[in-house]
Amino acid sequence: MIFRAVEDADLITRVRHGDVEAFNLLVSRWEKRVFNYLLRLTGKHEDSLDLTQDVFLKAYQNIRKLDDTARFGPWLYRIAHNEAYSQFRKRKPEVGLEDTTWFEREPAPGVAPDLAMAVNAALDRLTPEQREAVVLKVYEGFKFDEMAEILDCPVSTIKSRLYTALDLMKTELAPGSGRGFR
Amino acid sequence: MSICSRAEDLRDYAFDELAAGDRLSMEQHLGGCGECAGELDRLRVTTAALRALPDREIPRRIAFVSDKVFAPSRWSRFLSPVWGFASACVMAAALIVFAYHRPVEIRTLVSAAPQQTAAAPADITNQVNEAVAKAVSQVRAEDAKSTKVLLETMNRNHQREQQTLMEAVKVMQNRVNTSTLLASLDRRQPGAGQ
């Protein structure tokens, strides 16, 4: 993990010296994660792909503004978060991420339909803020301080959103001790 | 919902957010707290169910194919006025060269014109001179004619005025004669009126 971070930092240094291929390498490392983050946020395939492209374009244009190259991941996700919310505000100012329906998504390949449906239903009941906290923690594996940086709010708020969400989902996905989806 | 006082630490522990010392303490606690152990189990089942939904493959890869398209570096920003000045110099030089070459063509055309005139036949000049002389004589003749008409008109007017004056003088003389005659008659017959 540390080695990977150093490699990213090295690539960023090369990008800052005009090496476009170094940026392409950075993109290839992060594009799938950013795309899935946006897909879980928006629930829409095409929108997520367009947003992913916008995110990397912005990152490319602003990479000189990144103070700490070791924090590239949170910085990139911060851009992705802003882009997603900016798009929602632009398209329908009165409609936000809460109108995203998780059932619109295609069924995940290789996953039991019942499990996929139960997980999607559980995620669908969350507020957008709770859902994003779950996505960043459970799917993307960010630390609380990184999540605070991405979402621009205190760690205590992040924890509150995440743990409330888990309490809600736990009743459906793991109703009793030792039980759950097999 | 757990009622154990370490429920918050348990969740941090489940997400590997506890410091090393607290982590060891939590592991010891879990050994004796069935409630926290059960809660940890449920948290792990929940997160495992969530992670069962795999990441999707990105439909198409993103790549930047342009060359070094970047915001200008410090050197670029520093040099940009120099390049701007250099561009202005090149434009000025181009204008000077253009302005130098352009009049040469005009001079050539201008200098070519007298040669063509000199090369014209002499009879054309004579014809022109004759035409000019004819035009001048015509103008002079017209001027003489109009002058003559004007003088005649003036003479006629002058004679008419003289005639009018003579008639007026005659009338005045007649009036004087008549009054003189009447006065002499009055002197000759002093009591004729009494």
State the gist of this model.
The complex is a heterodimer of chains A (182) and B (194). Chain A is mainly alpha-helical and 182 residues long.
Strand count, sense and barrel status of the largest sheet of chain B are:
none
Number of strands of chain B: 0
From the structure provided, what is the oligomeric state, counting identical versus distinct chains? heterodimer
Succession of helices and strands of chain A: HHHHHHHH
Secondary-structure class of chain B:
mainly alpha
Helices of chain B, by number, come to: 5
- In N-to-C order, the SSE pattern of chain B is HHHHH
Radius of gyration of chain A: 17 Å
Radius of gyration of chain B: 65 Å
Helix content of chain B: over 70%
Query: Would you tell me the structural class of the helices and strands of chain A?
Result: mainly alpha
Measured by DSSP, the beta-strand proportion of chain A falls in under 5%
Q: Write down the overall mean pLDDT of chain A.
A: 85
Number of strands of chain A: 0
Q: How is this structure best described in words?
A:
- The complex is a heterodimer of chains A (182) and B (194).
- Chain A has 182 residues and is an all-alpha fold.
- Chain A has helices at 2-16, 20-42, 45-62, 72-91, 113-124, 128-139, 144-151, 155-173.
- In chain A, helix 4 packs parallel to helix 7.
- The two termini of chain A are 31 Å apart.
- Mean pLDDT of chain A is 85; it is low at 177-182.
- By secondary structure, chain B is mostly helical.
- Chain B has 5 helices and no strands.
- Chain B has helices spanning 7-14, 20-32, 34-51, 74-118, 122-188.
- Classes of the chains: A mainly alpha (182), B mainly alpha (194).
